[in-house]
Design brief:
This protein has helices at about 5-15, 30-40, 60-65, 115-120, 150-155, 200-210, 220-230, 250-255, 265-275, and strands at about 40-45, 50-55, 80-85, 90-100, 105-110, 130-135, 140-145, 170-175, 180-185, 190-200, 215, 280-285, 295-300, 300-310, 320-325, 335, 345. The chain has 9 helices and 17 strands. α2 (about 30-40) crosses α7.
Length: about 350
């Protein structure tokens, strides 16, 4: 039995409700899980996410030439959000890179390892860089909520003031059972920590977090919190058809001064033009109980955009979503029409 099978078996004993092969949708009450994310502390199974490691003396120079952000200035313990692009400037991947003493780790959504390793290897010529898929040896858990730092400190054995607190900062904590890498992130409202743990210790760490007070949280509540926070998911809100500036995270993902990289000409051309024709924004369906991906948005009968992801919002009421909206309509406060009722741009 591998580490994912062992975790799923444990989750079933906790009443997990599954939908296919994905992590649990909930553990019986998504309302309770959502409340824990915002009021106490919750742990989310993200064990199958992709982690690509780059080692070797040329790793920074190599990745710098293939991504949109400035990574040459990263010190060990720091990270940054970025896109990997194809030669036309379309997005192949979105995630974060974490700089260590001897490696870089690019972290993103599940199922991307082979695609990214093939892409990176294609441009690896004489550079001294070793590429590896960390997923067989390392797995991840998300810990979030106001009490997350306290819960985590009890689990990794460190003091709360030793935990990384700035966006995408990270630190490694040694434990007798194996090291735990702790990364501070913003997929949902902070505080939130991504834990990368040895795969063989995944179940043990999960149990320790629950014993330290964390509530097991499924994907339903996590999606509600993610969409409320406006964090996009690759292969859901971002695809290979999108250009970087359409995702509306320029200040977090793109350096406009770093020089040449794959796809940079397209990014520079859009920057010179001054805008894209659509961009990703948060939207709020005030009267809807449900509104799925692909829902069309209109303004006076004319196409205005479409929804990429949505979830019921306990905090705002109705449904909150992410949607690509045309330039004429993306200003905050604009009200559009849909089959689900009025749509407010947040």
């Amino acid at each position: 039995m591998n580490h994912l099978d062992a975790l799923r078996q444990l989750q079933m004993s906790l009443g997990a409700q599954f939908a296919g092969d994905a992590p649990p949708a909930n553990y019986g009450s998504s309302e309770k899980e959502y409340a824990a994310l915002h009021a106490s502390v919750a742990v989310v199974d993200v064990a199958d996410r992709t982690q690509i490691e780059l080692r070797g003396p040329d790793r920074i120079k190599f990745l710098h030439g293939l991504c949109t952000n400035e990574i040459r200035r990263l010190e060990p313990g720091q990270g940054c959000e970025l896109f990997l692009l194809d030669a036309r400037g379309h997005i192949l991947a979105h995630g974060a890179v974490f700089a260590g003493e001897e490696s870089l780790v690019f972290e993103t959504v599940p199922g991307q390892a082979q695609k990214l390793l093939t892409h990176l290897d294609r441009y690896l010529i004489r550079e001294q860089v070793l590429l590896a898929n960390r997923a067989p040896q390392w797995a991840e858990l998300l810990l979030a909520g106001p009490q997350a730092a306290e819960c985590l400190a009890r689990t990794v054995g460190g003091a709360q003031d030793q935990l990384p607190r700035t966006r995408l900062a990270h630190a490694q904590f040694s434990r007798p059972q194996g090291a735990v890498e702790v990364r501070c992130l913003d997929w949902i409202e902070p505080p939130a920590f991504l834990l990368s743990v040895p795969a063989l210790e995944l179940v043990s760490v999960w149990q320790q977090l629950l014993s330290a007070g964390a509530v097991a949280c499924g994907s339903e509540a996590f999606e509600q919190a993610r969409i409320e926070a406006g964090y996009p998911w690759y292969d859901v809100d971002i695809t290979e058809q999108n250009l970087p500036q359409e995702v509306n995270r320029d200040n977090l993902t793109i350096s406009f001064t770093k020089g040449c990289y794959l796809g940079q000409e397209t990014v520079a051309r859009i920057d010179a033009l001054g805008h894209v024709n659509k961009k990703l924004v948060r939207v709020h369906f005030t009267r809807a109980e449900a509104c799925g991906p692909g829902e069309a948005l209109h303004a006076a009968g004319k196409p205005a955009g479409s929804v990429t992801s949505s979830a019921r919002s306990p905090r705002l009421g109705g449904v909150v979503g992410l949607a690509y909206v045309r330039r004429e309509f993306w200003a905050s406060g604009t009200v559009l029409d849909s089959a689900c009722g009025p749509v407010h741009i947040l």
